[in-house]
Amino acid sequence: MENYIIIILCFAAFFAGFVDAIVGGGGLIQTPIALILLPSFPVSSITGSLKIPGISGTSVAAFHYLKHVKMNWKLLLIMAIFSCSFAFLGSELLTLVSNDFMKPLLFFILIILAVYTFIKKDFGLQQIKNLSESKMILFGILISSFIGFYDGFIGPGTGSFLVVAFISILGFDFLHASANAKMVNVASNLGSITLFVLKGKIIWAIAIPMAFCNAFGGWIGAKLAIKKGNDFIRIFFLIVVVGTLIRFGYDVFFKR
Prior knowledge:
The protein has one domain. The protein contains 10 helices and no strands. The longest helix is centred in the C-terminal third of the chain and has 25 residues, at 174-198. It has helices spanning 3-23, 27-37, 43-66, 73-94, 103-119, 133-153, 158-168, 174-198, 204-228, 230-253. The chain is an all-alpha fold. The mean pLDDT is 83.
């Protein structure tokens, strides 16, 4: 493999880690670049390999958030178990079938999400605690199962979807949603990685250097998110959602 390819992928991994640490969606940066630069490799191998930098950056960001943001450990432990398990199942399915049929649905969901976030100015700017513990755990199981499966099967945008779920369903603000989403995302990445390692799908020559760069980007992104707070994260979130829309829109309407 040419050195310049690894260098470009490392730059993509750094920026992906930075973005992912703030609002999620880092996979939307490094995944298309890897697919373009590595056309001779199977999609499942590329997807599996990118889980390594994905988990490294997310883990570093999660560790940094832990020092500054209060976590609901009981909820997170339950969500992590379901997220990891369903991501494993999603990755297993990815090795068997194409995931392209999901993209039109995601495209329209993202349009609604972007419009709602833009119009509702207070979306995610404060915590709303009106759920009982049992309801929060039930919703947490549903969220982590569905999005965990999505992460294993499709991947890009998982962090952003987790942030939205934590805000709109569980009543978190952007900062706490981003922090807790990182913990769940680490678990879903772990489930996918387990499957891809067992099937020998990891391209370690790109996975390891990208992991270091993604982790560095995640560290910087987490520090910036904590320093700037909810207003900054909300704006960044809108930018990432629009970018995700463009990516899925291209896949749905133009890619053949």
